[in-house]
Design goal:
Layout (H helix, E strand, L loop, with lengths): L2 H5 L12 H6 L13 H13 L4 H14 L1 H10 L1 H8 L3 H7 L1 H4 L6 E4 L6 H6 L8 E5 L16 H14 L6 E7 L5 H5 L13 H18 L4 E4 L4 H11 L5 E3 H21 L8 E4 L3 H16 L4 H5 L2 E5 L2 E2 L9 H4 L11 H8 L3 E4 L9 H10 L4 E4 L11 H6 L6 E4 L6 E3 L2 E3 L2 E2 L6 H11 L6 H13 L3 H5 L10 H18 L11 H6 L8
Parallel strand pairs: 1-3, 2-3, 2-4, 4-5, 6-7, 6-9, 9-10, 10-11, 11-14
Antiparallel strand pairs: 7-8, 12-13
Helix pairs in contact: 4-5, 4-7, 5-6, 5-10, 10-21, 14-15, 14-22, 18-19, 21-24, 22-24
Protein backbone atom coordinates (compact mmCIF):
# COMPACT_ATOMS: atom_id res chain seq x y z
CA UNK A 1 0.00 0.00 0.00
CA UNK A 2 1.42 3.37 -1.03
CA UNK A 3 0.70 7.04 -1.48
CA UNK A 4 -2.64 8.56 -0.58
CA UNK A 5 -4.20 5.11 -0.14
CA UNK A 6 -1.73 4.47 2.69
CA UNK A 7 -2.56 7.79 4.37
CA UNK A 8 -6.26 6.91 4.28
CA UNK A 9 -5.75 3.58 6.09
CA UNK A 10 -6.17 4.32 9.82
CA UNK A 11 -4.17 1.26 10.93
CA UNK A 12 -1.13 2.06 8.80
CA UNK A 13 -1.22 5.84 8.67
CA UNK A 14 1.22 7.68 10.90
CA UNK A 15 0.99 11.00 9.04
CA UNK A 16 4.01 13.28 9.54
CA UNK A 17 5.80 10.59 11.58
CA UNK A 18 6.78 8.77 8.36
CA UNK A 19 10.57 9.04 7.99
CA UNK A 20 12.28 10.50 4.95
CA UNK A 21 13.22 7.00 3.76
CA UNK A 22 9.65 5.76 4.21
CA UNK A 23 8.30 8.74 2.29
CA UNK A 24 10.62 8.02 -0.61
CA UNK A 25 9.81 4.32 -0.65
CA UNK A 26 6.04 4.64 -0.17
CA UNK A 27 5.32 7.47 -2.59
CA UNK A 28 4.51 10.04 0.09
CA UNK A 29 6.75 12.89 -1.05
CA UNK A 30 4.63 16.01 -1.47
CA UNK A 31 1.60 14.41 0.19
CA UNK A 32 2.85 15.52 3.62
CA UNK A 33 4.57 18.67 4.93
CA UNK A 34 8.35 18.19 4.98
CA UNK A 35 8.63 18.32 8.79
CA UNK A 36 9.14 14.87 10.36
CA UNK A 37 7.43 14.64 13.75
CA UNK A 38 7.42 12.23 16.66
CA UNK A 39 4.45 10.56 18.30
CA UNK A 40 4.92 12.92 21.26
CA UNK A 41 4.43 15.89 18.95
CA UNK A 42 1.29 14.24 17.61
CA UNK A 43 -0.03 13.68 21.14
CA UNK A 44 0.71 17.30 22.01
CA UNK A 45 -1.20 18.46 18.94
CA UNK A 46 -4.20 16.27 19.77
CA UNK A 47 -4.28 17.55 23.34
CA UNK A 48 -4.16 21.11 22.06
CA UNK A 49 -7.07 20.46 19.73
CA UNK A 50 -9.03 18.73 22.51
CA UNK A 51 -8.53 21.78 24.71
CA UNK A 52 -10.46 23.86 22.17
CA UNK A 53 -13.50 21.57 22.29
CA UNK A 54 -16.34 23.17 24.25
CA UNK A 55 -18.05 19.98 25.53
CA UNK A 56 -17.30 16.37 26.35
CA UNK A 57 -19.48 15.26 23.43
CA UNK A 58 -17.44 17.42 21.06
CA UNK A 59 -14.29 15.73 22.42
CA UNK A 60 -15.92 12.34 21.86
CA UNK A 61 -16.61 13.20 18.21
CA UNK A 62 -13.06 14.47 17.73
CA UNK A 63 -11.51 11.32 19.21
CA UNK A 64 -13.79 9.12 17.08
CA UNK A 65 -12.53 10.90 13.99
CA UNK A 66 -8.95 10.52 15.22
CA UNK A 67 -9.45 6.73 15.49
CA UNK A 68 -10.81 6.74 11.94
CA UNK A 69 -7.69 8.38 10.50
CA UNK A 70 -4.80 7.38 12.82
CA UNK A 71 -5.66 4.37 14.94
CA UNK A 72 -2.26 3.98 16.56
CA UNK A 73 -2.17 7.60 17.69
CA UNK A 74 -5.64 7.19 19.22
CA UNK A 75 -4.52 4.16 21.24
CA UNK A 76 -1.19 5.72 22.22
CA UNK A 77 -3.10 8.66 23.63
CA UNK A 78 -5.65 6.49 25.44
CA UNK A 79 -2.93 4.36 27.02
CA UNK A 80 -0.88 7.41 28.03
CA UNK A 81 -3.74 9.42 29.53
CA UNK A 82 -6.51 7.07 30.72
CA UNK A 83 -7.68 9.41 33.49
CA UNK A 84 -8.46 12.14 30.99
CA UNK A 85 -9.78 10.03 28.13
CA UNK A 86 -11.73 7.18 29.74
CA UNK A 87 -14.63 9.47 30.76
CA UNK A 88 -14.80 10.70 27.15
CA UNK A 89 -14.30 7.45 25.24
CA UNK A 90 -16.57 5.56 27.63
CA UNK A 91 -18.69 6.42 30.66
CA UNK A 92 -20.17 8.89 31.20
CA UNK A 93 -19.84 10.64 27.81
CA UNK A 94 -20.63 7.53 25.77
CA UNK A 95 -24.17 7.66 27.18
CA UNK A 96 -24.78 11.08 25.65
CA UNK A 97 -23.06 9.89 22.47
CA UNK A 98 -25.58 7.03 22.17
CA UNK A 99 -28.49 9.42 22.69
CA UNK A 100 -27.11 11.64 19.91
CA UNK A 101 -25.64 8.84 17.78
CA UNK A 102 -27.85 9.42 14.74
CA UNK A 103 -26.97 13.12 14.81
CA UNK A 104 -23.19 12.87 15.29
CA UNK A 105 -22.49 9.77 13.17
CA UNK A 106 -19.68 10.22 10.67
CA UNK A 107 -18.04 7.10 9.32
CA UNK A 108 -20.06 3.98 10.28
CA UNK A 109 -18.06 1.56 12.43
CA UNK A 110 -18.72 -2.08 13.26
CA UNK A 111 -21.44 -4.33 11.89
CA UNK A 112 -25.20 -3.76 12.00
CA UNK A 113 -27.09 -7.06 11.85
CA UNK A 114 -30.77 -6.38 11.29
CA UNK A 115 -33.91 -8.47 11.16
CA UNK A 116 -33.90 -7.99 7.39
CA UNK A 117 -30.89 -10.30 7.26
CA UNK A 118 -32.51 -13.30 8.94
CA UNK A 119 -31.25 -16.46 7.31
CA UNK A 120 -28.22 -14.59 5.94
CA UNK A 121 -26.35 -13.47 9.06
CA UNK A 122 -23.29 -15.52 8.07
CA UNK A 123 -23.09 -13.48 4.87
CA UNK A 124 -23.25 -10.23 6.85
CA UNK A 125 -20.40 -11.36 9.11
CA UNK A 126 -18.31 -12.28 6.07
CA UNK A 127 -18.56 -8.68 4.88
CA UNK A 128 -16.24 -7.68 7.72
CA UNK A 129 -12.75 -7.25 6.19
CA UNK A 130 -10.85 -8.98 9.03
CA UNK A 131 -11.10 -12.76 8.87
CA UNK A 132 -9.61 -13.65 12.27
CA UNK A 133 -11.96 -11.92 14.71
CA UNK A 134 -11.32 -13.00 18.32
CA UNK A 135 -13.66 -10.66 20.20
CA UNK A 136 -17.15 -9.44 19.45
CA UNK A 137 -18.97 -7.06 21.77
CA UNK A 138 -22.64 -7.23 20.81
CA UNK A 139 -25.68 -5.33 22.03
CA UNK A 140 -29.31 -5.12 20.99
CA UNK A 141 -29.44 -1.57 22.38
CA UNK A 142 -32.37 -2.21 24.71
CA UNK A 143 -30.76 -1.21 28.00
CA UNK A 144 -27.89 1.14 27.33
CA UNK A 145 -26.29 2.09 30.66
CA UNK A 146 -29.13 3.59 32.69
CA UNK A 147 -30.64 5.31 29.66
CA UNK A 148 -32.96 2.57 28.41
CA UNK A 149 -33.74 1.68 24.80
CA UNK A 150 -31.32 3.33 22.37
CA UNK A 151 -31.90 0.99 19.42
CA UNK A 152 -29.00 0.87 16.96
CA UNK A 153 -27.66 4.07 18.53
CA UNK A 154 -26.42 1.77 21.27
CA UNK A 155 -23.52 0.97 18.91
CA UNK A 156 -21.51 3.52 20.89
CA UNK A 157 -21.21 0.95 23.68
CA UNK A 158 -19.52 -1.90 21.72
CA UNK A 159 -17.25 0.65 20.03
CA UNK A 160 -16.26 2.17 23.37
CA UNK A 161 -15.80 -1.19 25.10
CA UNK A 162 -13.50 -2.48 22.38
CA UNK A 163 -11.49 0.75 22.39
CA UNK A 164 -10.70 0.00 26.04
CA UNK A 165 -9.93 -3.65 25.22
CA UNK A 166 -7.19 -2.45 22.88
CA UNK A 167 -6.01 0.77 24.48
CA UNK A 168 -5.93 -0.43 28.09
CA UNK A 169 -6.03 -4.23 27.92
CA UNK A 170 -3.71 -4.71 24.96
CA UNK A 171 -5.98 -6.84 22.76
CA UNK A 172 -5.08 -6.02 19.12
CA UNK A 173 -7.86 -3.86 17.63
CA UNK A 174 -7.64 -5.82 14.38
CA UNK A 175 -9.17 -8.87 16.09
CA UNK A 176 -12.12 -6.99 17.61
CA UNK A 177 -15.55 -6.34 16.13
CA UNK A 178 -18.40 -4.19 17.51
CA UNK A 179 -21.86 -5.49 16.58
CA UNK A 180 -25.36 -4.15 17.05
CA UNK A 181 -28.39 -6.38 16.53
CA UNK A 182 -31.16 -4.26 15.06
CA UNK A 183 -34.32 -5.90 16.38
CA UNK A 184 -36.32 -2.67 16.35
CA UNK A 185 -36.78 -0.06 19.07
CA UNK A 186 -39.57 1.03 21.39
CA UNK A 187 -38.00 4.46 21.84
CA UNK A 188 -40.73 6.84 20.63
CA UNK A 189 -38.26 9.72 20.16
CA UNK A 190 -36.13 7.65 17.82
CA UNK A 191 -39.11 6.30 15.89
CA UNK A 192 -40.10 9.90 15.16
CA UNK A 193 -36.54 11.17 14.52
CA UNK A 194 -35.72 11.49 10.79
CA UNK A 195 -32.02 11.01 11.65
CA UNK A 196 -32.49 7.69 13.46
CA UNK A 197 -30.40 5.26 11.37
CA UNK A 198 -32.03 1.96 12.39
CA UNK A 199 -35.17 0.07 11.39
CA UNK A 200 -38.37 1.93 12.22
CA UNK A 201 -40.38 -0.78 13.90
CA UNK A 202 -41.06 -1.94 17.44
CA UNK A 203 -38.88 -4.59 19.02
CA UNK A 204 -39.49 -8.24 18.40
CA UNK A 205 -39.79 -10.48 21.47
CA UNK A 206 -40.25 -14.09 22.51
CA UNK A 207 -39.32 -16.99 20.27
CA UNK A 208 -38.75 -14.72 17.26
CA UNK A 209 -36.13 -12.76 19.22
CA UNK A 210 -34.46 -15.87 20.65
CA UNK A 211 -34.17 -17.56 17.26
CA UNK A 212 -32.63 -14.41 15.76
CA UNK A 213 -29.96 -14.21 18.47
CA UNK A 214 -29.37 -17.97 18.15
CA UNK A 215 -28.73 -17.53 14.45
CA UNK A 216 -26.23 -14.78 15.21
CA UNK A 217 -24.36 -16.87 17.81
CA UNK A 218 -24.26 -19.89 15.49
CA UNK A 219 -23.08 -17.75 12.58
CA UNK A 220 -20.20 -16.41 14.67
CA UNK A 221 -19.09 -19.99 15.42
CA UNK A 222 -18.86 -20.74 11.69
CA UNK A 223 -17.39 -17.48 10.39
CA UNK A 224 -15.09 -16.67 13.33
CA UNK A 225 -14.49 -20.04 15.06
CA UNK A 226 -11.96 -18.67 17.58
CA UNK A 227 -14.15 -15.74 18.63
CA UNK A 228 -15.36 -14.89 22.15
CA UNK A 229 -18.72 -13.10 22.33
CA UNK A 230 -19.35 -10.47 24.99
CA UNK A 231 -23.06 -9.74 25.47
CA UNK A 232 -23.50 -6.11 26.45
CA UNK A 233 -26.40 -3.97 27.68
CA UNK A 234 -29.18 -6.47 27.11
CA UNK A 235 -32.22 -5.86 29.31
CA UNK A 236 -32.72 -7.88 32.50
CA UNK A 237 -35.37 -10.09 30.94
CA UNK A 238 -32.98 -11.32 28.23
CA UNK A 239 -29.48 -10.99 29.71
CA UNK A 240 -29.49 -13.94 32.12
CA UNK A 241 -31.44 -16.33 29.82
CA UNK A 242 -29.07 -15.54 26.92
CA UNK A 243 -26.01 -16.17 29.04
CA UNK A 244 -27.37 -19.43 30.43
CA UNK A 245 -28.45 -20.54 26.96
CA UNK A 246 -25.03 -20.13 25.37
CA UNK A 247 -22.25 -20.11 28.00
CA UNK A 248 -21.80 -23.90 28.16
CA UNK A 249 -21.53 -24.41 24.42
CA UNK A 250 -19.63 -21.34 23.14
CA UNK A 251 -16.97 -18.98 24.44
CA UNK A 252 -19.02 -16.05 25.74
CA UNK A 253 -19.81 -13.91 28.77
CA UNK A 254 -21.98 -11.00 29.86
CA UNK A 255 -20.00 -8.07 31.22
CA UNK A 256 -23.02 -6.49 32.91
CA UNK A 257 -23.44 -9.67 34.95
CA UNK A 258 -19.96 -11.14 35.36
CA UNK A 259 -17.74 -8.09 34.89
CA UNK A 260 -19.85 -5.99 37.24
CA UNK A 261 -19.78 -8.84 39.75
CA UNK A 262 -16.00 -9.07 39.64
CA UNK A 263 -15.39 -5.35 40.10
CA UNK A 264 -17.87 -5.28 43.00
CA UNK A 265 -16.26 -8.25 44.73
CA UNK A 266 -12.84 -6.65 44.19
CA UNK A 267 -14.26 -3.58 45.94
CA UNK A 268 -15.42 -5.75 48.82
CA UNK A 269 -11.92 -7.27 49.04
CA UNK A 270 -10.55 -3.74 49.41
CA UNK A 271 -13.15 -2.80 52.00
CA UNK A 272 -12.34 -5.95 53.95
CA UNK A 273 -8.68 -4.99 54.01
CA UNK A 274 -9.64 -1.67 55.58
CA UNK A 275 -11.91 -3.34 58.13
CA UNK A 276 -9.59 -6.33 58.64
CA UNK A 277 -12.31 -8.92 58.04
CA UNK A 278 -13.57 -11.09 55.16
CA UNK A 279 -16.31 -11.12 52.55
CA UNK A 280 -18.03 -13.87 54.56
CA UNK A 281 -18.51 -11.32 57.36
CA UNK A 282 -20.56 -8.94 55.20
CA UNK A 283 -24.32 -8.54 54.89
CA UNK A 284 -24.94 -7.14 51.43
CA UNK A 285 -28.08 -5.30 50.34
CA UNK A 286 -28.54 -4.76 46.61
CA UNK A 287 -30.69 -1.83 45.59
CA UNK A 288 -31.78 -3.24 42.25
CA UNK A 289 -32.62 -6.88 41.60
CA UNK A 290 -31.78 -7.30 37.93
CA UNK A 291 -29.01 -9.17 36.16
CA UNK A 292 -26.21 -7.00 37.58
CA UNK A 293 -27.39 -7.53 41.17
CA UNK A 294 -27.80 -11.27 40.61
CA UNK A 295 -24.33 -11.49 39.09
CA UNK A 296 -22.70 -9.70 42.03
CA UNK A 297 -24.68 -11.69 44.59
CA UNK A 298 -23.76 -15.00 42.95
CA UNK A 299 -20.05 -14.13 42.94
CA UNK A 300 -20.26 -12.94 46.55
CA UNK A 301 -21.80 -16.28 47.51
CA UNK A 302 -19.06 -18.13 45.63
CA UNK A 303 -16.39 -16.18 47.52
CA UNK A 304 -18.13 -16.66 50.89
CA UNK A 305 -18.24 -20.41 50.35
CA UNK A 306 -14.54 -20.38 49.49
CA UNK A 307 -13.99 -18.66 52.82
CA UNK A 308 -15.71 -21.56 54.57
CA UNK A 309 -19.33 -20.43 54.82
CA UNK A 310 -21.97 -23.02 53.82
CA UNK A 311 -23.82 -21.92 50.68
CA UNK A 312 -27.16 -21.72 52.53
CA UNK A 313 -25.62 -19.32 55.03
CA UNK A 314 -23.94 -17.29 52.29
CA UNK A 315 -27.26 -16.85 50.49
CA UNK A 316 -28.83 -15.51 53.70
CA UNK A 317 -26.22 -12.74 53.82
CA UNK A 318 -27.35 -11.26 50.48
CA UNK A 319 -30.61 -9.32 50.00
CA UNK A 320 -32.29 -7.90 46.91
CA UNK A 321 -34.59 -4.91 46.62
CA UNK A 322 -36.51 -4.03 43.45
CA UNK A 323 -39.10 -1.44 42.50
CA UNK A 324 -41.70 -3.29 44.59
CA UNK A 325 -39.52 -3.32 47.70
CA UNK A 326 -37.48 -5.94 49.51
CA UNK A 327 -37.51 -9.30 47.73
CA UNK A 328 -38.93 -11.79 50.21
CA UNK A 329 -40.34 -15.30 50.30
CA UNK A 330 -43.77 -13.72 49.74
CA UNK A 331 -42.74 -11.84 46.56
CA UNK A 332 -44.41 -12.95 43.35
CA UNK A 333 -43.14 -13.09 39.79
CA UNK A 334 -39.53 -13.81 40.75
CA UNK A 335 -37.06 -15.51 38.44
CA UNK A 336 -35.28 -18.64 39.61
CA UNK A 337 -32.13 -16.57 40.12
CA UNK A 338 -33.95 -13.99 42.28
CA UNK A 339 -35.73 -16.67 44.31
CA UNK A 340 -32.40 -17.81 45.77
CA UNK A 341 -32.26 -14.50 47.61
CA UNK A 342 -35.92 -14.33 48.66
CA UNK A 343 -35.76 -14.68 52.45
CA UNK A 344 -38.43 -14.80 55.14
CA UNK A 345 -38.49 -11.07 55.86
CA UNK A 346 -41.33 -8.61 56.26
CA UNK A 347 -42.18 -7.04 52.87
CA UNK A 348 -40.96 -3.42 52.97
CA UNK A 349 -40.97 -0.82 50.20
CA UNK A 350 -38.83 2.01 51.60
CA UNK A 351 -35.04 1.67 51.33
CA UNK A 352 -34.48 3.35 54.69
CA UNK A 353 -36.80 0.85 56.40
CA UNK A 354 -35.09 -2.05 54.65
CA UNK A 355 -31.67 -0.84 55.81
CA UNK A 356 -32.93 -0.57 59.38
CA UNK A 357 -34.44 -4.07 59.25
CA UNK A 358 -31.76 -5.99 57.31
CA UNK A 359 -28.81 -4.15 58.91
CA UNK A 360 -26.43 -4.50 55.96
CA UNK A 361 -22.73 -3.76 56.16
CA UNK A 362 -22.67 -3.00 52.43
CA UNK A 363 -25.21 -1.20 50.23
CA UNK A 364 -24.71 -1.71 46.49
CA UNK A 365 -26.68 0.33 43.97
CA UNK A 366 -27.48 -1.14 40.55
CA UNK A 367 -30.87 0.53 40.12
CA UNK A 368 -30.11 3.53 37.82
CA UNK A 369 -32.23 5.62 40.25
CA UNK A 370 -30.32 8.82 40.90
CA UNK A 371 -30.16 9.90 44.54
CA UNK A 372 -31.73 6.72 45.90
CA UNK A 373 -29.12 6.63 48.67
CA UNK A 374 -30.58 9.63 50.51
CA UNK A 375 -28.84 11.41 53.39
CA UNK A 376 -31.11 9.49 55.78
CA UNK A 377 -30.15 6.14 54.21
CA UNK A 378 -26.43 6.99 54.34
CA UNK A 379 -26.76 8.15 57.95
CA UNK A 380 -28.56 4.91 58.85
CA UNK A 381 -25.75 2.85 57.29
CA UNK A 382 -23.25 4.91 59.33
CA UNK A 383 -25.23 4.30 62.52
CA UNK A 384 -25.20 0.55 61.91
CA UNK A 385 -21.54 0.29 60.88
CA UNK A 386 -18.26 1.88 61.96
CA UNK A 387 -17.24 1.82 58.25
CA UNK A 388 -20.34 1.55 56.04
CA UNK A 389 -19.69 0.26 52.50
CA UNK A 390 -21.49 2.34 49.86
CA UNK A 391 -21.15 1.33 46.21
CA UNK A 392 -23.50 3.32 43.91
CA UNK A 393 -22.51 1.55 40.71
CA UNK A 394 -25.19 2.82 38.30
CA UNK A 395 -23.99 4.57 35.15
CA UNK A 396 -23.75 7.23 33.84
CA UNK A 397 -23.05 9.82 36.56
CA UNK A 398 -26.56 11.23 36.24
CA UNK A 399 -27.94 7.84 37.38
CA UNK A 400 -25.65 7.32 40.38
CA UNK A 401 -27.51 6.44 43.60
CA UNK A 402 -25.44 9.04 45.47
CA UNK A 403 -22.41 11.25 45.05
CA UNK A 404 -19.07 10.82 46.77
CA UNK A 405 -19.65 14.10 48.61
CA UNK A 406 -22.98 12.90 50.02
CA UNK A 407 -21.53 9.53 51.05
CA UNK A 408 -18.59 11.08 52.89
CA UNK A 409 -20.43 13.96 54.52
CA UNK A 410 -23.49 12.04 55.73
CA UNK A 411 -21.35 9.21 57.12
CA UNK A 412 -19.08 11.67 58.98
CA UNK A 413 -16.18 10.65 56.75
CA UNK A 414 -16.47 6.94 57.58
CA UNK A 415 -17.94 5.53 54.35
CA UNK A 416 -15.91 3.17 52.17
CA UNK A 417 -17.04 4.47 48.81
CA UNK A 418 -16.79 3.50 45.16
CA UNK A 419 -19.03 4.44 42.24
CA UNK A 420 -19.57 3.32 38.68
CA UNK A 421 -18.71 6.78 37.35
CA UNK A 422 -15.79 9.02 38.28
CA UNK A 423 -16.06 11.54 41.11
CA UNK A 424 -13.31 14.05 41.93
CA UNK A 425 -11.21 13.91 45.12
CA UNK A 426 -12.59 15.88 48.06
CA UNK A 427 -11.63 17.00 51.55
CA UNK A 428 -13.71 16.42 54.65
CA UNK A 429 -12.64 17.75 58.04
CA UNK A 430 -9.11 18.23 56.79
CA UNK A 431 -8.70 14.72 55.35
CA UNK A 432 -8.30 13.82 51.68
CA UNK A 433 -10.71 11.28 50.18
CA UNK A 434 -10.12 9.82 46.72
CA UNK A 435 -13.32 8.12 45.45
CA UNK A 436 -12.74 4.85 43.67
CA UNK A 437 -14.37 4.13 40.33
CA UNK A 438 -15.79 0.62 40.41
CA UNK A 439 -15.98 0.43 36.65
CA UNK A 440 -15.94 -2.86 34.72
CA UNK A 441 -12.97 -1.51 32.77
CA UNK A 442 -10.90 -2.83 35.68
CA UNK A 443 -11.98 -6.36 34.74
CA UNK A 444 -13.13 -7.17 31.21
CA UNK A 445 -10.05 -6.00 29.25
CA UNK A 446 -7.90 -8.24 31.46
CA UNK A 447 -10.18 -11.24 31.01
CA UNK A 448 -10.23 -10.41 27.30
CA UNK A 449 -6.45 -10.39 26.97
CA UNK A 450 -6.20 -13.68 28.88
CA UNK A 451 -8.84 -15.31 26.67
CA UNK A 452 -7.17 -13.94 23.52
CA UNK A 453 -3.70 -15.10 24.54
CA UNK A 454 -4.78 -18.59 25.63
CA UNK A 455 -7.52 -19.07 23.00
CA UNK A 456 -9.75 -20.19 25.87
CA UNK A 457 -12.61 -22.50 24.94
CA UNK A 458 -14.99 -21.12 27.59
CA UNK A 459 -15.27 -18.22 30.03
CA UNK A 460 -16.08 -19.20 33.61
CA UNK A 461 -17.08 -17.40 36.81
CA UNK A 462 -13.80 -18.61 38.32
CA UNK A 463 -11.95 -16.42 35.82
CA UNK A 464 -13.83 -13.36 36.99
CA UNK A 465 -13.21 -14.17 40.63
CA UNK A 466 -9.50 -14.60 39.88
CA UNK A 467 -9.52 -11.20 38.13
CA UNK A 468 -11.18 -9.67 41.20
CA UNK A 469 -8.56 -11.19 43.50
CA UNK A 470 -5.73 -9.96 41.28
CA UNK A 471 -7.21 -6.46 41.05
CA UNK A 472 -7.69 -6.17 44.81
CA UNK A 473 -4.17 -7.45 45.52
CA UNK A 474 -2.72 -4.53 43.54
CA UNK A 475 -4.26 -1.89 45.83
CA UNK A 476 -1.53 -0.44 48.06
CA UNK A 477 -1.74 0.59 51.69
CA UNK A 478 -1.25 4.19 50.52
CA UNK A 479 -4.32 3.83 48.31
CA UNK A 480 -6.38 2.51 51.21
CA UNK A 481 -5.32 5.41 53.42
CA UNK A 482 -7.21 7.85 51.18
CA UNK A 483 -10.19 5.52 50.75
CA UNK A 484 -9.17 4.23 47.33
CA UNK A 485 -10.13 0.56 47.04
CA UNK A 486 -9.11 0.16 43.38
CA UNK A 487 -5.70 0.94 41.89
CA UNK A 488 -5.44 4.48 40.47
CA UNK A 489 -6.85 4.87 36.96
CA UNK A 490 -3.51 6.31 35.84
CA UNK A 491 -2.00 2.83 36.41
CA UNK A 492 -4.80 0.84 34.80
CA UNK A 493 -2.79 -0.59 31.89
CA UNK A 494 -0.15 -2.38 34.03
CA UNK A 495 -2.92 -3.33 36.48
CA UNK A 496 -4.86 -5.07 33.72
CA UNK A 497 -1.79 -6.85 32.37
CA UNK A 498 -1.06 -8.36 35.80
CA UNK A 499 -4.70 -9.46 36.04
CA UNK A 500 -4.53 -11.01 32.57
CA UNK A 501 -1.47 -13.06 33.54
CA UNK A 502 -3.26 -14.34 36.65
CA UNK A 503 -6.42 -15.21 34.70
CA UNK A 504 -4.39 -16.89 31.95
CA UNK A 505 -2.68 -19.03 34.59
CA UNK A 506 -6.10 -20.16 35.81
CA UNK A 507 -7.20 -20.94 32.24
CA UNK A 508 -4.19 -23.22 31.78
CA UNK A 509 -4.75 -24.77 35.22
CA UNK A 510 -8.39 -25.57 34.35
CA UNK A 511 -7.48 -27.12 31.00
CA UNK A 512 -9.55 -24.56 29.06
CA UNK A 513 -6.76 -23.17 26.89
CA UNK A 514 -6.67 -23.78 23.15
CA UNK A 515 -2.86 -23.55 23.04
CA UNK A 516 -0.07 -25.42 24.81
CA UNK A 517 0.96 -24.17 28.26
CA UNK A 518 4.14 -22.09 27.97
CA UNK A 519 7.00 -22.32 30.46
CA UNK A 520 6.66 -18.63 31.29
CA UNK A 521 3.00 -17.53 31.28
CA UNK A 522 3.87 -13.94 32.19
CA UNK A 523 6.16 -13.54 29.19
CA UNK A 524 3.71 -15.41 26.97
CA UNK A 525 0.82 -13.04 27.78
CA UNK A 526 2.98 -9.93 27.54
CA UNK A 527 4.15 -11.08 24.14
CA UNK A 528 0.55 -10.88 22.89
CA UNK A 529 0.00 -7.24 23.93
CA UNK A 530 -0.86 -4.78 21.18
CA UNK A 531 1.77 -2.04 20.87
CA UNK A 532 0.35 1.09 19.21
CA UNK A 533 3.65 2.97 18.89
CA UNK A 534 4.84 3.96 15.43
Amino acid sequence: MQGRTLLLDPRLNKATAFTEAEREKLGLIGLLPDGIETSQTHIHRVNTQLSHCTSQLEKYVYLSELADRNERLFYMLLRAEPEMLMPIVYTPTVGEACQQFGHIMRRPRGLYVSLKRRGKIKDVLRNWPEKDVRFIVVTDGERILGLGDQGVCGMGIPIGKLALYAGLGGVPPSVTLPVTLDVGTNNEVFLEDPLYPGMRQRRITGDEYTSFVDEFVDAVQEVFPHCCIQFEDFTNKTAIPLLERHRKRVCCFNDDIQGTAAVAVAGLFGACRIMKNKVRDQRVLFYGAGSAAIGIADLCVLQMTREGLPEAEALKRCFLMNSKGLVTAESVGLSDQQRRYAHANTPTKELLHVVEMVKPTALIGVSTIAGAFTPAVIAAMATLNPRPILFPYSNPTSKSECTAKDAIEHSQGRAIFAAGSPFPPLHYQGKLFVPGQGNNVYIYPAVGLAVYATEAKRVTDDMFLRAAESLAAQVTEEDLQVGLIYPPVAEIHPTLIKEAVDVATLIFDQGLAGVARPNDIDAFVRGKIYNPTY
